[in-house]
Design goal:
about 280 residues; alpha/beta; six-stranded parallel β-sheet; 12 helices; 6 strands; globular
Length: about 280
């Protein structure tokens, strides 16, 4: 008997209970970089082929959320948005979003969808964790302003925040950027220390921080949990009830908050949110 791939297993699992599940999928980057752009790019052809393949393997007639994986440096936003709009109107997709796109392109896409009467974007997706908070500069404020839901991937920084040993991450761009570095080590030390105080796992603390950090967000932020075992899933769910004190949250923010850069620092000073340097 041939072995089923994961989407076929999901389709079998949800069975007749399909409407009680939300299935999200993405397309655009193939298995290998040698595949032609017609297969792995964001083109209309690749988009439609990927949707049909996913629907067939999942055994369903629609996807709840669909988006390109990331920028392919070739397909214009107009083509992507028009294709997504067609998929929604054909009933094969319910909602649409964008993956690893910079804030200016997401904003432009939202405007194009509005003025061209395409279905509006509903979500964006990017990496975010205690160890990776670059999205605080542009992506998160934009999502709140535009009312976009947020899916954050690698909330444990590729396993790094799950705690030692070993102090490493499965994320390839960390290795390419000489990470983990001193800042990452300081963040992990803080997570491990709080885990000891609460008699919890470091990964639970890192996920618990995310829950409380976004508790007052103006939009919905959903961490994508990459659990590969039942124990991993149980540990992640335990973070829902993990209490972090205001002192612990402040300590985490102190060690992990990114430098916002310009024009944010200038505007914070102008608005009185930042103390001017001592003369």
């Amino acid at each position: 008997m041939p072995v089923k791939e994961h989407r076929e297993l999901i389709g079998t699992f949800i069975g007749a209970d399909r409407d009680n599940y939300v299935i999200s999928s993405k397309y655009g980057i193939g298995v290998t970089r040698t595949e032609p752009w017609t297969v792995r790019g964001n083109s209309r052809k690749a988009m439609f082929a990927a949707v049909e393949g996913s629907l067939r393997r999942l055994g369903t007639d629609y996807l709840d959320l669909y988006s390109p994986h990331g920028v392919d440096a070739s397909t214009p936003l107009e083509e992507i948005l028009a294709g997504l709009d067609d998929l929604v109107r054909a009933g094969k997709v319910r909602y649409t979003g964008l993956g690893a796109y910079p804030a200016w392109q997401v904003s432009r896409a939202a405007l194009l969808a509005d003025i061209r009467n395409y279905v509006p974007l509903t979500t964006i997706r990017f990496e975010y964790s205690l160890a990776e908070r670059s999205a605080d500069r542009e992506l998160l404020p934009m999502a709140e302003a535009l009312g976009l839901g947020v899916l954050i991937w690698s909330p444990l920084a590729g396993g790094y925040l799950a705690g030692p040993p070993p102090r490493r991450s499965k994320l390839p761009h960390w290795a390419a950027g000489d990470r983990p570095g001193p800042r990452d080590a300081a963040i992990l030390d803080a997570v491990v220390a709080v885990a000891g105080e609460l008699d919890a796992q470091p990964g639970q603390v890192a996920l618990g921080w995310l829950r409380q950090h976004f508790a007052s967000s103006a939009t919905t932020v959903v961490p994508v949990i990459g659990a590969s075992t039942g124990r991993h899933l149980d540990d992640a769910l335990a973070a829902l009830t993990l209490p972090l004190t205001s002192q612990q949250l402040t300590a985490f923010d102190s060690v992990s908050a990114p430098e916002l850069g310009q024009p944010h620092e200038y505007n914070r000073l102008s608005l009185g949110l930042l103390e001017p340097p001592a003369s």
